[in-house]
Write the structure tokens for this entry.
Amino acid sequence: MGKSILDGRSKSLIAKQQSIQSLHSLIASTLEQHGITENHIEADIIIMDVLAITRVELISSQDSIVSADQLHSIESIITRRMRREPLAYILGYQPFYGLDFAVDSNVLIPRPETELLVEEILNTTIADNNLSVADIGTGSGVIAVTLAIMRGNYKFYAVDQSAAAVDLARQNAKAHNVLGKINFKTGHLFANTTDKFDLIVSNLPYIPSSRLDQLDPELSWEPLQALDGGTDGSEVISKLIYQSALHVKPDSTIFLEIDHSHSDKLINIANKIFPASSIQIKQDLQGFDRILIIKPFGRNLT
Ligand SMILES: C[S@@+](CC[C@H](N)C(=O)[O-])C[C@H]1O[C@@H](n2cnc3c(N)ncnc32)[C@H](O)[C@@H]1O
């Protein structure tokens, strides 16, 4: 096992001169000792963040000496990370679809699977339309904000039951200059609107309540209401499909991120609510069913 960054407490480390290269090894081995498997990637991210350098600069300046202040900042990040607090919460942001989003412990850290959901919508819509979009369970706002940037003509309704999440989503919309395009609300699913939408998109919680205490330690830092999908994990998404009946137009499409174990059940519900629907499932990069696309009346958007 390698030397830990906190061996002999930090004073000697801060006083000591460290090159980027030696610091990287020290961070990576410390994270590994604490069960963090993506230790090298995280060491890169931590150094780039604290030194405010790009990946190219990280690679080309391996012999540069890190200042005592920078070592001190890195040490406080590592101390929190050793308790398995997610790095995104410690640094205060998470990249999503090539953009940075502010995150804190009131919102789920956006996941790569959700980038597939956004990608699917971008692949099946055209920019010139003027579509209305509902993002239900917006969290940090990643879906609505990314789509608002990519689809400048569309209008968005974004809701979350957590007021703190909605505040952060607003901040993200402001930071990305799309605040005026998104109508944010706090509330339960469609409770605050009677509107019908061209697109309904949603990444609601889908983990069964009984599995919540068996997850990686990092997930215990994330908000329960962003993870807990009820007894079998599909309760909230099922409710959304039922309620969407009042909020679709003849050409609407519903895009849902789901857990692969729920696809049959959710397809049955969609067929029951929308007997004329056409339904598609898309897999994630691991080959698991991940995105459920429902065209309630079987018609194409464009
Ligand atoms: C899995 S997180 C996804 C957040 C964000 N859309 C993303 O993809 O990163 C689910 C979000 O749905 C919200 N949520 C859960 N149940 C809800 C409900 N019944 N009505 C509105 N929002 C809900 C949670 O507060 C949480 O922010």
